[in-house]
Amino acid sequence: MAQDLTDSFRLAYDxxxxxxxxxxxxxxxxxxxxxxxxxxxWDASSGEEWMQFSANGQPVLYVRANLxxxxxLSGYEGVLDDIPVVLISADDFQKVxxxxxxxxxxxxxxxxxxxxxxxSGFTIxxxxxxxx
Length: 132
Description:
alpha/beta; 33% helix
């Protein structure tokens, strides 16, 4: 059975007005302090909406630029203690285990991104690639 991410995305969306660029920068700075081995992959100037942190060459954390939302690989949750984001923990970014309401997809992602994901079954990696 797929884990439904709808409530987490709605909560992040409901709190989006308080998520400023300054807050994002503060969170990113704090993550680098706590998660020293992480490397980020994010091209803000091209409009990318997810920041990716990796360890040992593998993605372990995605932080949404325009929402207080983070998706983290199980086992790394401690690096987000006291950081004001809606947290989704996933034990695998490559397995089809997640779902998201179509209306939420359409509200948060481009039409192309929303149309490229199967709302009833996708991986975190697919979500990141489709909505980057």
